[in-house]
Amino acid sequence: MLHRVRSAVAHLVSSGGPPGSGSSVLPTPASPNPIAHPVAPRSPPAGAERGTRASGGAVENRGSFSRPTFLQLSPRGLRRAEDHAGRVVQSPPDTGRRLPWRTGYAEVINAGKSRHNEDQACCEVVYVESRQARMGGPGKSISDQGNQGLYFHYWGLFDGHAGGGAAEMASRLLHRHIREQLRGLVEILQDPSPPPLCLPSTTEASVSLELSCPGGSQPCWPLQKEVTHESLVVGAIENAFQFMDEHMAREQRNQYAVGGCCALVAVYLLGKMYVANAGDSRAIIVRNGDIIPMSREFTPETERQRLQLLGFLKPELLGNEFTHLEFPRRVQPKELGQRMLYRDQSMTGWAYKKIELQDLRFPLVCGEGKKARVMATIGVTRGLGDHNLKVSSSTLPVKPFLSCFPEVQVYDLTQYEHCPDDVLILGTDGLWDVSSDKDVADTVDKVLSSFEPNDPSRYTALAQTLVLGARGISREQGWRLPNNKMGSGDDISVFVIPLGGAGSYT
Amino acid sequence: MLHRVRSAVAHLVSSGGPPGSGSSVLPTPASPNPIAHPVAPRSPPAGAERGTRASGGAVENRGSFSRPTFLQLSPRGLRRAEDHAGRVVQSPPDTGRRLPWRTGYAEVINAGKSRHNEDQACCEVVYVESRQARMGGPGKSISDQGNQGLYFHYWGLFDGHAGGGAAEMASRLLHRHIREQLRGLVEILQDPSPPPLCLPSTTEASVSLELSCPGGSQPCWPLQKEVTHESLVVGAIENAFQFMDEHMAREQRNQYAVGGCCALVAVYLLGKMYVANAGDSRAIIVRNGDIIPMSREFTPETERQRLQLLGFLKPELLGNEFTHLEFPRRVQPKELGQRMLYRDQSMTGWAYKKIELQDLRFPLVCGEGKKARVMATIGVTRGLGDHNLKVSSSTLPVKPFLSCFPEVQVYDLTQYEHCPDDVLILGTDGLWDVSSDKDVADTVDKVLSSFEPNDPSRYTALAQTLVLGARGISREQGWRLPNNKMGSGDDISVFVIPLGGAGSYT
């Protein structure tokens, strides 16, 4: 079956650079062979990222548009990738070195919605040198001090809007911000005892204050909370998103990065997979045919109450243009005095209220599904960038309503023996708009069962099939694809991350 | 087995008033026989509540403490119910008329934690007369106009704190507020077509305004949302909680009602069960042995981020006494300048921060589990009342951080054929502190299987067993109870609502 499919879709799929043209070297592979490095080696391998402090570093201004480096596109390949008419699906070359964990990847540009593909992607193995090692005195090499760093594996999808700058910047720098946040935790995460609640400072504070306890002499807080290693990693990823967002704010003032992006990243560290999502991309694990959701979408609909609460508490953010109340349709001036359905920040149900003058303002949140908008402007409520985004025909900033914080879900890989068909799928909304979780799980089963378990190209073939399916390639063209009435006209990017089988990350 | 149990626990259980003393008449039974009235009868049955507008009505000042009227306690029974040493479990009399749906109920006072039992309960069948019928002109009777009212069945548990006034007031009035909110919906809920988004007013508005649309001429909101009948009922219940809370604010100024209460209510209307929870009580359905959670608890731990966000956006609510940041233990003055674990309103993980002077303030949220507190004062974050609650030794009000809004979950009874062993359990935290959902489900199975399916006393026996178990009665006393190390010292109240079998609500 597969051979027929392969030939049928061959003209729709392109795998990276020209055959034999340096496809054995990834531009920033971080490590020559993922199998070769244990989690905490004595010294970082050549090529592992270890240097510049991202938050302080200058942003490289590439000037022109680019695709993920691991695609290894030649100038001609780049032109093909930007062809809205052909919409060729792009994947890394299937010869030579592969992405870590044999990760599969595929992407396709939109059908003319924007000039460039505004999705970006990143896949890296990142070495985290401990802060203590970096602060070692002159004349001492890192290995002399016996400080062992940590590795994490990293996959990121960035779905840009209003320009590709933010997505591109995030794809190049977010993992560095994560590394910075983890740097101070290297020794703590490798120590099995619970993390210290308080760390000494180098300068001694000499303040003497009396602590008062509300309620007087009662011991109001006798115990201390136990904090897990896992929650430190979650906190590090959350703060890395915030630093990345602040970094963009500085650069947007310098006009390097424009627009905003959703960010969905997976971080594998010390046996656990951390999936962090800010936006409307989605991650699922397909394990033994079962679907395990690993993210939630953040949209004007799912975050309605958070947005309305902010508008209620800070009405100055609404200007005189918006009301924090939601109505099922626009209120008309002639309806003043009548009673209309509404809901506020505290309600999930609806009730009637008498229409007053301020209810004629535009609702902060309106519309449904893909048409839902905050301030009639943007359809996602979390992500990076958008610092200059204003309400159309207005100077009112939208950013105060957007959150840069991801929701992080943790999956412990040591709790289950995974087989080669168990995968983590990361996809931008272009995939999920037209494919349900079930569609994707069915395709996982169909494609992977048609390959040998050890065939290294099976995960890329799966990513390609998912993208082709979402693009709307019909069955007649040789593949039994998800039952789409119409393919997505959006950019589509998909990572397929195998969770077991190859043993490449033990 | 049961007879042995019955005799073994007989001295611990009391069923209402003295035998034969009027136990065939409930004080406010609302309907003589639940089977006799369909959902929308032509005219309300004698005794159904139909009159006074609760929000405007005066509060009956009972003066002294009371127990739910359906317990039909004599003065002597009331004294027994208030005996902390015996802690006799109270239930409605098992002769004569029962609670609607054969509902089981049991309660017990605490072990001296407060003087009175601060839990209260209510079980009613409530008739909702349509607003149109009420507005009928003089000389026309209700039945003349052909307007049919609606019934809803209602169960409420109210777990009081800092006094029993709020719980007692809520137990007498919340269902009336719900009735008021439903009154304008009577015709709409009985009309199968979608609810109208806008209702005409009696006075015509004559305003002509130009509506501007952000983004200019684009059709920014082409569609209208569909609103379901179900979401109207949810909105009505949500707003009834708010009106009840405002009602208490007015009465607390008049010093009638003191303290606050958690509220957990179930409303059965037109085939659906609406379970609304504000506080740390809990509802579960046990269906064919499976557990279906019907509520979530609202505590400083589960609502941490909501509370911290409010403190962050409105720092004036924290005075100079509290910080919105959370720390795993109290920060000491000598730790100034050191780095301590913390998390803010956006984080679920933890990270280190350098301790500054304002971090020495007491955290808005602290402690764990039952010891978690908001402002070192209160352990629940939703409920009714508490309008005068201040931080100990301070004038800072706690109320701005408490929400009176319930979360409403809906269960459609028509989607499943229920057997007589399928029940909805409502319990105050005294039950759930020492019994897990699984413990309760096991007890449901054990007790109900020892009775004939048609035995009307089986649900009261189950409620009694659950309360006895949570009170900590050991197995040696004749019953295989949940595996508690120690019984709850709190007030405990439990409703057992059968979902099928008797056909009493079709």
> Which spans of chain A have pLDDT < 50 for at least 5 consecutive residues?
1-8, 18-63, 137-145, 203-209, 478-484
- Return the CATH architecture of the domain at 67-131 and 149-192 and 229-293 and 415-461 and 489-505 in chain A: 4-Layer Sandwich
Could you tell me the mean pLDDT of chain A? 82
What is the N-to-C succession of helices and strands of chain A?
A: HEHEEEHEHHEHEEEEHEEEEEEEEEHHHE
Structural class of chain A: alpha+beta
Assembly status: homodimer
Rg of chain A, rounded, reads: 25 Å
Shape of chain A: globular
CATH topology of the domain at 67-131 and 149-192 and 229-293 and 415-461 and 489-505 in chain A: Phosphatase 2c, domain 1
Count of helical segments of chain A? Answer: 10
Distance between the termini of chain A: 33 Å
Number of strands of chain A: 20
The first-level CATH class name of the domain at 67-131 and 149-192 and 229-293 and 415-461 and 489-505 in chain A: Alpha Beta
Q: What is the beta-strand fraction of chain A?
A: 15-25%
Region (Disordered) (chains A, B): 1-100
Biased composition (Polar residues) (chains A, B): 63-72
GO molecular function (chains A, B): [pyruvate dehydrogenase (acetyl-transferring)]-phosphatase activity
InterPro entries (chains A, B): PP2C, PPM-type-like_dom_sf, PPM-type_phosphatase-like_dom
